[in-house]
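Input structure tokens:
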């Protein structure tokens, strides 16, 4: 059971209000950042469905592989701080939802320099085992400073001056 889960009378997505679903999904999104920054791989992985996909430039499939990924990423840094904003959630069915959120992430590298990342998360959610969990999370980049990384760029319209 995840810390924000409702008592058993609220654990049925068929009877859960949209407001309660949005609150739980928001908690999942915010917990993601908290667990990354505290290095809690197991708690972080529990935010994902058993067969979820996590794509941060290359896709990883399944909760076990997702859990194994976090220590590999965090060993590159001595500290991280993820800031989430602009959360938009659309409940597409009683037990599924889509969401986008924006992220600014600061990282301190081992040499003492900083890496900064500006991007967004494109999420699919499913209600699994009494909680809203990521069934898919894709990271897209607006920009980065201090490290070359291979993350998909956010698609942008071309603007021409006239």
């Amino acid at each position: 059971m995840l810390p924000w889960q409702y008592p058993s009378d609220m654990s049925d997505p068929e009877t859960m209000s949209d407001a309660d679903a949005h609150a739980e999904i928001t908690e999942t999104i915010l917990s993601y950042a908290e667990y990354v920054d505290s290095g809690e791989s197991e708690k972080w992985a529990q935010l994902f469905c058993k067969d979820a996909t996590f794509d941060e430039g290359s896709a990883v499939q399944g909760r076990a592989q997702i859990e194994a990924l976090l220590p590999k990423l965090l060993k590159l840094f001595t500290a991280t701080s993820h800031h989430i904003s602009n959360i938009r959630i659309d409940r597409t069915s009683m037990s599924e939802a889509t969401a986008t959120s924006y992220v600014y992430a600061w990282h301190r590298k081992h040499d003492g320099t900083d890496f900064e990342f500006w991007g967004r998360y494109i999420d699919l959610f499913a209600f699994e085992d009494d909680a809203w969990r990521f069934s898919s999370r894709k990271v897209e980049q607006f920009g980065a400073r201090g490290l070359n990384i291979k993350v998909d760029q956010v698609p942008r319209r071309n603007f021409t001056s006239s």
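Helices lie at 18-38, 41-46, 63-74. The chain has a mean pLDDT of 90.
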